[in-house]
Amino acid sequence: MSDPAADNRRPLKSRGTAWARALAAGCARAGIGPDQISAMSVVCAGLGATALLSAGLIGGGWRWIFLLAAATCIQLRLLCNLLDGMVAVEHGRGGTAGPIWNELPDRIADGLFLVAAGYAAALPGGPALGWVAAWLAVLTAYVRELGRGLGYPADFSGPMAKPHRMAALTVTCAVAAFEPLWGWTGESLLLGLAVIVIGAAATVARRTRALARRLAA
Fold first, then answer.
1. Exposure check for the chain: N or C terminus, fewer CB within 10 A?
2. Which fold has domain 6-216?
3. Per-residue pLDDT tens for 179-207?
4. What is this structure's pTM?
5. Distance (Å, rounded) from C-alpha 111 to C-alpha 52?
6. 161: exposed, middle or buried (C-beta count within 10 Å: 0-12, 13-18, 19+)?
7. Lowest-pLDDT choice from 12-26, 83-97, 111-125, 187-201
8. What is the pLDDT of residue 195?
């Protein structure tokens, strides 16, 4: 995140941890800018999506490895999302293109992970769930930015905001890696995506209602 506007920073407890501050300071000292870190989040998403698609295509004994690799890439993407904002704001490295890097990489990364997860299930309905989840992820961000465009602070409420979606997908991938132990072959991914879809739809509805109340007031 490269936009220093205070009302557009997602509240994160991890931002105040010693390890996060040390990593952000290290990036700043090394000359790594926030936009570069944002770009790396898309690279992580691309690698994670590739791992998910490989899990769906290859299957067998290698499937669990690809699923755990995807879960790792999701967390690396979130780490990039944490550090780019810290480098931009705490270390004063934000640039004029910050608002673009603030939003566009996140939308790309969400789509890559969620759509690929649908195909990784390798079951009927999986791709459709993945695409619907990706569409709803974009819609949650759209409603938030619509509110900002109307002059209100950003609404980061859940129940399935970006960190929640990625946490749910990380757990889903981890569980799916071991689902052969109880005889499943992709059902974990379908269930996880269904939870994300329902939660994201509820998030869109909640943010829309909150925005409507603000306008009415």
1. C
2. Four Helix Bundle (Hemerythrin (Met), subunit A) (1.20.120)
3. 999 999 999 999 999 999 999 999 999 99
4. 0.93
5. 13
6. buried
7. 83-97
8. 98
